[in-house]
Amino acid sequence: MSVLEARGLSFEAGGRRLVAGASFRLAPGTLTMLIGPNGSGKSSLLRLALGLLPPSAGSATIDGAEVRSLSPAARARKVAYLPQTRPLAWPVPVRDVIALGRFAHGVAPGRLAADDARAVARAIAACRLAGLEDRAADTLSGGELARVHLARALAAEAPLLVADEPVAALDPLYQHEVAALFARAARAGHGVLTVMHDLALAARYADRLLWMKDGAIVADGTVEDTMTPARLADVFGVAARIDRSADGLALAVTGPA
Ligand SMILES: Nc1ncnc2c1ncn2[C@@H]1O[C@H](COP(=O)(O)OP(=O)(O)OP(=O)(O)O)[C@@H](O)[C@H]1O
């Protein structure tokens, strides 16, 4: 099992500090959700932590190795990444898009070894894409395509999974299914970190929340410990009601704070 550690990551661009001294540890067996307002630096922090942006200060390591020292294939064997923008303009069959997730295992689409084919089949089943495997990906709906990209990330079967707003295009049922899928992956021993805008889903499924505001992580802890009306007002500027139910915390955002 692998551990991703970010220590004091900072990033500046356009004369602004977009990420300011952010530290966190992504450990196996935990579903961590990164939450914060638009533009607070969440995507930038993920990209720094994965070595896709050069930090102006701080470092990120996976199992003790600097992420930026890892080759793309070596990094992809440790961590699967689902970016926020997922352009796909070509009429590639869905199965081949998902098989790209196996690239770190030396696979070219169309030449899958039995192990790779099984991993692709598991990802297709997990994302409920059966029946769409032969469709050209550019004919899918936005939500279907979002699930294909998620399946591509899952097919890697990497110990760590980092996803940037994976449920943004999904209807409520699929949102819950994907959040539950991430929770199951965490229970199975993966370390999962995902940006989440839906605070009710975060309250329901996250083991741990990283709260980001103005480029900084301002709170890091369990839902129980960190999700309070005062923090929601401070970080998001919203008024919220939080009820304890048998399923955990239930959250209703009632308006601006
Ligand atoms: N290369 C860049 N040059 C200048 N500004 C940038 C650059 N990259 C990002 N930014 C700005 O940095 C801020 C943080 O962006 P980022 O995408 O990390 O935020 P986010 O929290 O993921 O936002 P969202 O929830 O809207 O996706 C934004 O104001 C964005 O416009």
Automatic annotation (TrEMBL):
Bilayer-spanning residue ranges: none
Keywords assigned by UniProt, alphabetized: ATP-binding, Nucleotide-binding, Translocase, Transport
One example GO MF annotation: ATP binding
The UniProt record lists the keyword Ribosomal protein: no
Domain ABC transporter: 4-239
This protein's record includes keyword Translocase: yes
InterPro entries (alphabetical): AAA+_ATPase, ABC_transporter-like_ATP-bd, P-loop_NTPase
Gene3D superfamilies registered for this protein in UniProt: P-loop containing nucleotide triphosphate hydrolases
Physiological role: Part of the ABC transporter complex HmuTUV involved in hemin import. Responsible for energy coupling to the transport system.
Name of the protein in its database record: ATP-binding cassette domain-containing protein
Source organism of the structure: Pelagerythrobacter marinus
